UniProtKB/TrEMBL annotation:
NCBIfam families: bioD. Coiled coil: none annotated. It comes from the Bacteria. The lineage of its organism: Bacteria, Pseudomonadati, Pseudomonadota, Gammaproteobacteria, Oceanospirillales. The keyword Magnesium applies. It comes from Reinekea blandensis MED297. Its cofactor is Mg(2+). GO terms for molecular function: ATP binding; dethiobiotin synthase activity; magnesium ion binding; protein homodimerization activity. One of its GO terms (biological process) is biotin biosynthetic process. Mg(2+) binds at residues 17, 55, 118. The active site is at residue 38. ATP binds at residues 55, 118-121, 178-179, 207-209. This is ATP-dependent dethiobiotin synthetase BioD. Homodimer.
Length: 239
């Protein structure tokens, strides 16, 4: 069975891309073909003479299936800000229908065993006056993996996001604690608190990594790769 997940975050800059890289590497080590997609990105820099989003490029490098940049990141906004504001400034209009259509085409052409589709910012990032990015995994019927940036304030962000995901009728396949600091005070206690309250399993604790260090998948629970039929949306909180 093809495994396809939407990578959501509790906020912007919580490490969705770093975690996605590691998951793609882990799936590849399990013998799976892999693809990472970033359908919507805000923030472009010059890479090899072209305007590209660094996160999308990282996903491409971690994937085993080569795809054109425009397929991986079909909507690129140049300013690093809320997507709907960046789009307005560029005279563009974002829509769920267009984003979902781009990704359906990418999924059909890639046919990878393991696909990650990374979101932008937090769960309810606006796309236009009516739609938010939360509708994207609904449109493609994707299970969600939530990245929690471990820092002061993460408990509230994580619990609200997990509740919103499940209230929107989606399966929260699991969550990942991403260590943003080398020595967070109360890290283990915060993780335990979230394990008791989030109605989905902890997939793994991504260790803190310095800028420029290579990602690895030693921390990932292999069940994410080997048990695609394991639905967790109705799981009870861990005791």
């Amino acid at each position: 069975m093809k495994q396809r997940f939407f990578i959501a975050g509790t906020d912007t800059d919580v490490g969705k891309t770093r975690v996605s890289e590691s998951l793609l590497i882990g799936a590849r080590l399990q013998g799976l073909s892999t693809v990472g997609l970033k359908p919507l990105a805000a923030g472009a820099v010059d890479i090899d003479g072209e305007q590209r989003n660094p996160d999308a490029v990282c996903l491409m490098r971690a994937s085993s299936v080569a795809m054109p940049y425009d397929t991986v990141n079909p909507v690129l906004l140049h300013e690093p800000m809320a997507p709907h504001i960046a789009a307005d400034r560029e005279g563009k209009r974002l829509s769920l229908q267009a984003l979902a259509g781009y990704c359906r085409g990418a999924l059909m052409s890639a046919r990878a065993d393991f696909t990650l589709i990374e979101g932008a910012g937090g769960w309810y990032v606006p796309l236009n006056q009516r739609e938010t990015l939360a509708g994207f995994p609904q449109a493609l019927n994707l299970e969600v993996v939530l990245v929690v940036g471990m820092k002061l304030g993460c408990l509230n962000h994580a619990l609200l996001t997990a509740e919103a995901i499940q209230r929107d009728g989606l399966t929260l396949r699991g969550w990942i604690a991403n260590c943003l600091e080398p020595d967070m005070n109360g890290l283990e206690e915060n993780i335990q608190t979230l394990q008791q309250r989030i109605r989905a399993p902890l997939v793994g604790v991504h260790p803190y990594v310095k800028e420029g260090e290579q990602p690895n998948a030693n921390w990932v629970n292999p069940a994410l790769f080997t048990s695609p039929g394991n639905r967790q949306s109705s799981a009870q909180p861990n005791e």
